[in-house]
Amino acid sequence: MKQNQIWGSGLSPFFVPEDFLPSHPSVKEDLETEILVIGGGLSGLLCAYELLKAQKKVTVVTANTIGDGACRFSSGIMSADGGPDLLRLRELIGQEHAVGWYRLAAAAVEQMEKIVEDTGSKCDFRRRDQFYYTASPREASVLREEYYLRRHIGLDCEWLNEAEGRELFSFPCGGGMMMKNGGGELNAVKLCRDLGDWITLHGGSLYEGSRVDVIESCGPDGFLCRCSGKKIRAKRVVDARGGEVLLKRPQLGQRVTVFVVVTQPVAVFRGWKDGCLIKNHDELSYLRTTPDGRILFAGHPTSVLTPEGRWGKLDANALCRVKYKNLGAELEEMFIGLPRAKVEYGFTQGLVLPKKGLPYVGKDAQWKDLYYLYAFGESGLAGAVLGASWIRRMVCGEGGNVPEYLAL
Ligand SMILES: Cc1cc2nc3c(=O)[nH]c(=O)nc-3n(C[C@H](O)[C@H](O)[C@H](O)COP(=O)(O)OP(=O)(O)OC[C@H]3O[C@@H](n4cnc5c(N)ncnc54)[C@H](O)[C@@H]3O)c2cc1C
């Protein structure tokens, strides 16, 4: 392994150092705006995009550079499903809501495609089939039940038994479902950069290196926010600060550490049908290919590491090395026919798993005109797209209530 094998370092295959040089000014004087969006990740930037489309005056402020939060490490997979299994989600929020969320999540991929087209983003968006499988023939019956439910609600998927799986993939498959054309992949950092440019080109203001420390309500006059020693007055505020909100509201989710390995570029993909997205039911791991022909394998999450990168009294590097080695060995075994599927490096990052596996979107219970969008977790990209359009509808009074199961 070359570099970046150490805990918390930031080199995902989508990382280009230039992308994290500030390209927008910081707040240097007091400002006034109609809507202040706090957070320059995909959630905040998509909210700004939606609100500018609705002719609102929007200012975005972000603590460091845009796209430097969870987006920077995102695998960029838009799953063809809503994140948590439909069977599990049904237990958590009831059949009607679970089905509702699944339909919305499927629509989010389409919505993302339109946004990419509209903004002209070069984020390498591609529609993809997704194979959701289990290696264990015993687990296959559970997954098959999930498949029946998905089919029943009209999702386009096909069941592959062990023998059919073997025809398309080189790894052992007890059974799985191929979700047709329902997923997508993209480069989340590039999308953030392109959205940033689109926002400034369409009359929005965007400030980097500008952290909001305090939000005060001024009653009917809106809000006063303190940002880098300056004051920003806004009629409305959208809070899209990402994982940082967990510092004050730890009950919203659990922070786990995800391990990711990236291979050298692979010339020909044998034993991997059309480079589709792959999700493993047994270990909650994901695989995708990158536009330069690498394999990205993310999985084996653990909650034993602290946000500081410590494992009890030990430094986390030892654990990382073991995880990368295991992921690498698993990958070589899965794609035995790909001679160059050798891990080049690994990286690791904290991921917030929200309590129900869903984003949080809504209006603050205490302060009118304060909105929040926290799109955590494995369906974060879908949550950001859907959440941003709900924020626009709430702000513009367009109707269509946010489903109550997404409220804080
Ligand atoms: C390792 C990893 C892999 C992932 N893979 C996927 C995936 O494959 N598919 C998927 O759907 N999702 C994935 N996600 C999640 C997904 O990337 C995020 O949910 C999505 O990017 C939405 O991010 P966000 O804008 O809500 O938060 P962030 O990207 O974290 O952005 C929040 C921004 O707010 C800024 N900020 C915070 N506090 C303040 C403040 N007080 N003032 C000003 N600015 C502030 C931060 O600096 C940051 O730039 C992954 C996440 C991680 C960590």
In words, what does this structure look like?
- This protein has 408 residues and is of the alpha+beta class.
- The chain has a domain at 17-74 and 189-250 and 357-406: FAD/NAD(P)-binding domain.
- It has helices at residues 42-53, 86-93, 95-119, 137-152, 162-168, 188-201, 317-334, 380-396, and strands at residues 31-38, 58-61, 77-78, 126-134, 157-161, 175-185, 205-207, 212-217, 223-227, 230-239, 253-263, 277-280, 285-289, 295-302, 310-311, 314-315, 343-354, 360-363, 370-374.
- Strand 13 and strand 14 form a beta hairpin.
- Helix 3 crosses helix 8.
- The chain is globular, with a radius of gyration of 21 Å.
- Flavin-adenine dinucleotide (FAD) binds at residues 38-44, 61-64, 68-71, 73-78, 188, 211-212, 240-244, 258, 349, 351, 375-376, 378-382, 384.
List keywords for this structure.
29% helix; disordered N terminus; binds flavin-adenine dinucleotide; 408 residues; 9-stranded mixed beta sheet; 8-stranded mixed beta sheet; alpha+beta; FAD/NAD(P)-binding domain; 28% strand
